[in-house]
């Protein structure tokens, strides 16, 4: 019944996808990235209820003033920055730990192919991190979450279908592997 358990994560993603449009954007995002003061105050009221949020708003304005002269770095500039090496090392350690997650076994592949699938899982995670970090400032978290959950739901339906058909068509196992890679990329970009 592991396939039912796998489908359960798709159900959770669908529920989150349905409710996401009703939530406002993040107040710091609206103020710091978009420069929308009125939208920031409106989002604060939607999230926290009626009240006086001038202290929080002033803190965000101070943060905006402090970061105004700060250059936003792209991915290559971050990789060259020595001060972020400890965080990058931690992230790489987490990516390498995905080798032991057992995701490769779900596709019911030959044992000789599993190391390559594990390597593909790590590469998929790396691709999603690089891609997400380069587009998050442009689109914001809400759009990435929404799109990520939509893609994840679609990929899970296709994955379930390919797993059901893998007994009849051996090539469907490879489709399952590709769908797992795509699921990981969609998860990394969105949620």
TrEMBL record:
Xref: Pfam families: Sugar_tr
GO molecular function: D-glucose transmembrane transporter activity
UniProt KW Oxidoreductase keyword: no
Location of the Major facilitator superfamily (MFS) profile domain: 1-191
Gene Ontology biological-process entries: D-glucose import; dehydroascorbic acid transport
Compartments reported by the entry: Membrane
InterPro entries, sorted: GLUT, MFS_dom, MFS_sugar_transport-like, MFS_trans_sf
Protein name (Swiss-Prot/TrEMBL): GTR9 protein
């Amino acid at each position: 019944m592991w396939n039912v358990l796998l489908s359960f994560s798709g159900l959770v993603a669908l529920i989150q996808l349905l409710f996401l449009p009703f939530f406002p954007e993040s107040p710091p995002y609206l103020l710091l990235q978009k420069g929308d003061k009125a939208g920031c105050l409106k989002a604060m009221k939607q999230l926290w209820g009626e009240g006086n949020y001038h202290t929080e708003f002033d803190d965000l304005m101070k943060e905006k003033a402090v970061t105004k002269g700060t250059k936003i770095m792209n991915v290559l500039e971050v990789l060259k920055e020595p001060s972020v090496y400890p965080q990058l090392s931690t992230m790489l350690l987490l990516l390498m730990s995905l080798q032991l997650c057992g995701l490769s076994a779900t596709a019911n592949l030959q044992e000789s192919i599993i190391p390559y699938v594990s390597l593909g899982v790590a590469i998929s995670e790396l691709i999603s991190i690089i891609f997400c970090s380069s587009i998050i400032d442009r689109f914001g978290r809400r759009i990435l979450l929404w799109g990520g959950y939509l893609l994840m739901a679609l990929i899970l339906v296709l994955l379930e279908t390919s797993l059901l058909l893998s007994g009849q068509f051996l090539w469907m196992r490879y489709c399952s592997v590709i769908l797992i890679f795509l699921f990981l990329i969609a998860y990394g970009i969105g949620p």
